[in-house]
Specification:
InterPro entries: AAA+_ATPase (IPR003593), ABC_transporter-like_ATP-bd (IPR003439), ABC_transporter-like_CS (IPR017871), ABC_transporter_ATP-binding (IPR050763), P-loop_NTPase (IPR027417)
Protein name: ABC-type multidrug transport system ATPase subunit
Shape: globular
Number of strands: 9
Radius of gyration: 17 Å
Membrane topology: Peripheral membrane protein
Number of helices: 7
GO molecular function, one term: ATP binding
Pfam family, one: ABC_tran
Order of helices and strands: EEEHEEHEHHHEHEHE
Length: about 220
């Protein structure tokens, strides 16, 4: 787990989203600072995933602004990408690369020093209890195993803010506990997490703050 560029605050100010005149997200505001573990809950159709996409600069809001320390958030900006690490939807991956190969690729892409690569990769595999899967291809993993591998890819890259969409999905009870521990560790290290969660008990146990999105029509 590599530290990213530190930030002071991420601010969503009155953002909305609509497609062809249909509202996908009502006006929403949120401020995130270092050391916060913010869980977003709410019914299906409340705009949670849409909000995460806007928050990471993957999608432009119809109205309102997203700024990181006063700079507009755009996922194409490399500085922004060294602060915000998203996991929103499945990672495509490569059929002919093993789990370990994927992590090596991520580590080198983000400028990890070669001498310490093996140590970093082994550490993240062991922390998520997926070391035994290092030589498997993604197609050989169960849905829960793949979820943890995708989480390992995001955790390995530099970041100060994780943005995750339902990372608990497809994980059994034990692995949800593991997820909770890992996210708390990130926050204890002065990083931040914003994530959508449908497991209310997990959210209450893990979050420093819960934001509930209402259903909208």
């Amino acid at each position: 787990m590599t530290a990213g560029t530190a930030f002071q605050e991420l601010v969503a100010d009155g953002v909305t989203a609509s497609v062809d005149g249909v509202s996908m997200l009502p006006e929403t505001s949120l401020t995130v600072r270092p050391g916060e573990n913010v869980v977003i809950t709410g019914p299906n159709g409340a705009g949670k995933t849409t909000f995460l996409r806007i928050l990471t600069g993957n999608m432009l809001p119809t109205a309102g602004t997203i700024t990181l320390d006063g700079t507009r958030v755009d996922e194409r900006d490399r500085t922004i990408r060294r602060v915000i690490a998203p996991l929103i939807g499945p990672i495509a991956g490569y059929r002919d690369l093993t789990v370990g190969d994927h992590l090596i690729l991520v580590d080198q892409t983000w400028g990890g020093d070669r001498a310490g690569a093996a140590e970093r990769i082994i550490a993240i595999l062991e922390r998520l209890d997926i070391y035994d899967f290092r030589d498997r291809y993604l197609s050989q993993l169960s849905s829960g195993q793949r979820q943890l591998v995708e989480l390992s890819i995001v955790l390995l890259r530099p970041s100060a803010l994780l943005v995750l969409d339902e990372p608990e999905q497809r994980l059994d009870t034990g692995r949800r506990e593991l997820l909770s521990d890992v996210l708390r560790e990130r926050v204890d290290a002065a990083s931040s997490v914003v994530w959508v969660c449908h497991d209310q008990e997990l959210a209450e146990r893990t979050a420093t703050r819960i934001e509930r999105f209402p259903q909208h029509s």
